[in-house]
Write a structure and sequence with these properties.
This protein has one domain. It has one helix and nine strands, in the order H-E-E-E-E-E-E-E-E-E.
Length: 190
């Protein structure tokens, strides 16, 4: 997945993996955008070690990877050589810049996990959502850097040229970031 467009928000997300829940009615006029990245991969199970819970898979390009499946991988004993593995990863990052108002810096996080029913081939999904509200402490429009003060620390980030509206941002504004990452993995006996 190309991360160039997400690079501008990576620094914001490093303020915290989570963010802040804010009252939507408190939000002043906002501008910004959303970036979505997605990876879809398919692989075939080459070997399974039931004692060490290691599975080696080979993808469409011939690359092999060995992973250790922890105790949360339900139905591990249902995995067999020749099974197909489908992996889908999607990341959505939304950034809103707000002039004035918006509340104090804060953060919130949620994680949802789902697994396959007992007796079926392993499958599962995890969705992690984080939000952060940070104060714009300083901005250098020429160098395209923004210094943000979040609930845990202050951080200076480089803003990618693809990000529009930077000229509207000023010290005292707020930046709201919401990031959602979804990972789904399914083993089938195709």
């Amino acid at each position: 997945m190309k991360t160039n467009r997400i690079a501008a928000v990576a620094g914001l997300l490093s303020l915290t993996l989570a963010g802040c829940a804010t009252n939507k009615s408190d939000k002043p006029e906002a501008w910004g955008g959303t970036v979505v990245g997605e990876i879809n991969k398919r692989a075939e199970v080459q070997t399974v070690n039931y004692l060490t819970r290691e599975v080696t898979v080979k993808d469409d390009t011939g690359e092999t990877t060995t992973v250790v499946c922890g105790p949360l991988v339900r139905n591990f004993n249902q995995i067999n050589r020749g099974d197909k593995v489908a992996v889908q990863y999607q990341e959505t990052v939304t950034i809103l810049a707000m002039s004035g108002g918006g509340g104090a810096p804060g953060r919130a996080e949620s994680v949802d996990v789902a697994g396959a029913p007992l007796g079926q081939k392993p499958a599962g999904a995890i969705v992690q959502t984080g939000e952060v509200l940070a104060d714009v402490v300083a901005i250098n429009h020429q160098d395209r850097t923004v210094t943000l003060k979040g609930p845990l620390r202050t951080l200076t980030v480089q803003v990618d040229k693809a990000v529009k509206g930077l000229d509207r941002l000023k010290a005292g504004d707020k930046v709201y970031v919401r990031a959602t990452a979804t990972l789904a993995v399914a083993v089938t006996a195709e």
